[in-house]
Amino acid sequence: MVEIIRPQHPQAYRLLRFLACILAGGFISQAISCLAAYLLISDSQAAGMVAHIVVQHLSNYFLGCAFAILSIANVLIKRGLFPLKNIRLPLLIMMMAVAVVSFLLIPRMDYLRETALLDGTPVMLSPFANYFQVLNILTLMLLLTQIIASILVAWRLVDSKST
Description:
The protein has helices spanning about 10-40, 45-80, 90-120, 130-160. It is built from four helices and no strands. The protein is elongated and about 80 Å long. It starts with 9 loop residues before the first helix and ends with a helix. Helix content is about 80%, strand content about 0%. Helix 1 (about 10-40) runs antiparallel to helix 4. It has about 160 residues and is mostly helical. It has one domain (about 10-160). The longest helix is centred in the middle third of the chain and has 35 residues, at about 45-80.
């Protein structure tokens, strides 16, 4: 006799997959929109300002979506669905990267930009240029980390469908 095993909580898994795919797609579209700002605006300082505004406004959406995924996954883990434990770490890394970029690095870069403009120079010609460049590289690396972590979460959730 063959026994058919039905997965537990299929709607919750579907919701998690949907949210994770939306999250990964959102990060990829954010990267494309920031790249488009740099390509379409000839002034790199103005393009950076536009890209940072986009990143900061989308960060609340990303944090909310990641928190929803983490909360639902934790509830399902408490109900005995232990394969969902493998999405916790990438989600936490992604949430920390979003928070650091949106609430620490970008406001500091805005402050440096404003200070340089008050002195009458662009930020890359000011005494803060090296510090600004380091912050900009950190921001780009953390944005790449966000993309990779969100794709990893979506991949693990879609892959769990087949098991």
